[in-house]
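F.,

This is the one I mentioned.
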């Protein structure tokens, strides 16, 4: 059984026991979060498609950790002008464990 769920504006395939890296959630480490924007549920061939979401369905997650992704270097240059700008960025993520899918 799996579900397509929208978390922080992104869509993920959620299965029970699977770990996901999502954009930073406003939840404490170790807390349980319920996601109710379930777009699709597949229960061994029995597919329910939401219009736009499946009514009464939710995905229960536990927040395992808050961490940062790898460093991304943003480098801008204009040739022959002496213009060089270097900047870095690290995206904040939350690691969540999918506990169960309630359909």
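My design for it:
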């Amino acid at each position: 059984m799996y579900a397509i769920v929208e978390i922080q504006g992104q869509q993920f395939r959620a299965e029970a026991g699977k770990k996901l890296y999502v954009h930073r959630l406003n939840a404490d480490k170790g807390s349980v979060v319920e996601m109710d924007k379930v777009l699709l549920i597949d229960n061994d061939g029995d597919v329910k498609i939401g219009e736009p979401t499946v009514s009464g369905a939710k995905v229960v997650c536990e927040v395992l950790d808050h961490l940062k992704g790898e460093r991304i270097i943003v480098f801008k240059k204009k040739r022959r002008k002496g213009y060089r700008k270097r900047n870095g960025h690290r995206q904040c993520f939350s690691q969540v464990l999918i506990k169960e899918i309630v359909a």
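Strands lie at 2-7, 10-15, 19-23, 32-35, 38-43, 46-49, 58-68, 72-78, 83-89, 92-102.

Talk soon.
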